[in-house]
UniProtKB/TrEMBL annotation:
Residue ranges, annotated region (Disordered): 103-176
Biased composition (Low complexity): 143-152
Chain coiled-coil ranges: 33-67
Entry keyword set: Coiled coil
Superkingdom per UniProt: Eukaryota
Lineage, opening ranks: Eukaryota, Viridiplantae, Streptophyta, Embryophyta, Tracheophyta
Organism: Saponaria officinalis (Common soapwort)
Protein name: Uncharacterized protein
Amino acid sequence: MLDANFRLAADVWEQRSRRAVSEKKEKAEREKLTNVQDKSRTLDENLHELDAKMQVLQEEHHALENTLAKAFTYASWESKIKCIKQVRAGLHADWDLKEEERPFAKTFSSPPDMSALANLSDSDDDEGSSEGSDGSSSGGAEGAASEGGAEALVVPVGEDVGVPAEKEAEQGGAYD
């Protein structure tokens, strides 16, 4: 009888030990799962924030592209060259900074100085829009592109920005 009670007590103790071990394992797995879910939730929130910031950056990028395109359509060669040099200088300086210090990386909070393009003369506006023999107008971007205006936009970074010889001759050699 004593032997049977001892076996029964040993069985009960063994079951409790197994149950305690399995409960500890389940608790550890639940904690791991909770941690993973919390991290996943945090990553999802960060992803949504980054998506929102990316959307803002894309909108500002498109706005800046539109502004530059409009300005370049009607700008003089001097203004185009000055603006390109300012943008390049800003981008080169930007590469030497840490990411949090980059003005161009922070939603274009410090765009290049556009005052040269804002002070356009009236004679520059007439250059891009000349009326053809059939009465149609080739104005704006088409006129600038046909006169070589696209050349100023396609100069590789690091190259010296120069004026094409035919443009220099047309304007009386003002770029000596």
